[in-house]
Design brief:
By secondary structure, the chain is of the alpha+beta class. Helix content is 19%, strand content 34%. The protein has 3 domains: 88 residues, Pseudouridine synthase; 131 residues, Pseudouridine synthase (2-Layer Sandwich); 61 residues, Roll (Archaeosine Trna-guanine Transglycosylase, Chain: A, domain 4). The chain is built from 7 helices and 18 strands. Strands 1, 2, 3, 4, 7, 10, 11, 12, 13 and 14 form a 10-stranded mixed sheet that branches. The protein has a 4-stranded mixed sheet with strand order 15-16-17-18. Strands 5-6 form a two-stranded antiparallel sheet. Strand 17 and strand 18 form a beta hairpin. It is elongated and about 70 Å long.
Length: 304
């Protein structure tokens, strides 16, 4: 019989540089296997075509995944003019064409402002959104198209980085739920053109950026050397910039049992609803909030 591989209890966050050609779940499973981790989760899928920043949460850090799902993101992308595809990217069949030579950089820049700030997007059929329990992409692959309600997203920044050769590059900082494929299509359509994505790379997911990303190849080499744990960020890195409080061991024990504690003061004025709770030694313990009586109450406990 094949021996069962032991699983480790370890906590931390790996900023994976996901390669093109594999799903986010396949990347997650590869990381989990290399770390022999008991628990792992990612913080929002990247399409197989896409590369870049995919935070992988291990152990107790998986309890922070939901916070990172809601984070703002930054992408660099490239779109090809003259063809619209069924999927919005290079993997789909061409469903419409236009004369790319009829558009210049000034024409695309002229409509850029319409896609900044709060905008409405209609989710693509090739997406993981569900209709009556079925992902839309399953319906699309069956040749079906259903009505989708437009959703509000926020484009914090949209810059045209280059134009030429029938393609354009851009960088976008956006809220959760933004489909960059749809953004490229809609932006080109406003200028009278068809377009689809040919490259997409995520370079930011608040509070992380691309500077600390680790490739799968580097992780595999580190795992073989026994040094992979050194590539993990502490859980507290996900809460960088949050207001914080420090508690005693006795207070931490009460909080761990779901009980509110008195006499805790934040390190700085806490206008935010949630705070990061640290032990006196500096370890992250969890997330909490002050209740109406001014007591610190736990919302999500991370310490084991």
């Amino acid at each position: 019989m094949k021996a069962k591989v032991g699983r480790r209890q370890l906590n931390g966050i790996l900023l994976l540089d996901k390669p093109a050609g594999i799903s986010s779940n396949a990347a997650l499973q590869a990381v989990k296997r290399l770390y022999q981790a008991e628990r792992a989760g990612h913080t929002g899928s990247l399409d197989p075509l896409a590369t870049g920043l995919l935070p992988i949460c291990l152990g107790q850090a998986t309890k922070l995944s939901g916070l990172l799902l809601d984070a703002d993101k930054v992408y660099v992308a490239r779109a090809r003019l003259g063809e619209r595809t069924a999927t919005g990217d290079a993997e789909g069949e061409v469903v419409a064409r236009s004369d790319a030579a009829a558009l210049d950089r000034a024409g695309l820049e002229a409509v850029r402002a319409a896609f900044t700030g709060d905008i409405l997007q209609t989710p693509p059929m090739y997406s993981a959104l569900k209709r009556e329990g079925r992902p839309l992409y399953e319906l699309a692959r069956a040749g079906l198209e259903v009505e989708r309600a437009a959703r509000a997203v926020r484009i914090h920044r949209l810059e045209l980085t280059d134009f030429g050769g029938g393609e354009f590059g851009f960088e976008v900082a956006c809220s959760k739920g933004t489909y960059v494929r749809t953004l490229a299509e809609d932006w080109a359509a406003a200028a009278g053109q068809c377009a689809h994505l040919v490259a997409l790379r995520r370079t930011g997911l608040a509070p992380f950026d691309a500077g600390s990303m680790v490739t799968l190849e580097r992780l595999q080499a580190a795992a073989a050397e026994g040094s992979a744990d050194a590539l993990l960020l502490p859980m507290a890195a996900a809460l960088r910039g949050w207001p914080r409080v420090s508690v005693t061991a006795a207070q931490a024990q009460r909080l761990a049992h779901g009980q509110a504690v008195e006499g805790v003061q934040p390190a700085q004025p806490a206008a935010a609803a949630a705070l990061a709770i640290f032990a006196e030694a500096g370890d992250l313990l969890g997330i909490g909030e002050f209740d109406a009586a001014g007591r610190l109450a736990p919302k999500r406990w991370l310490s084991q």
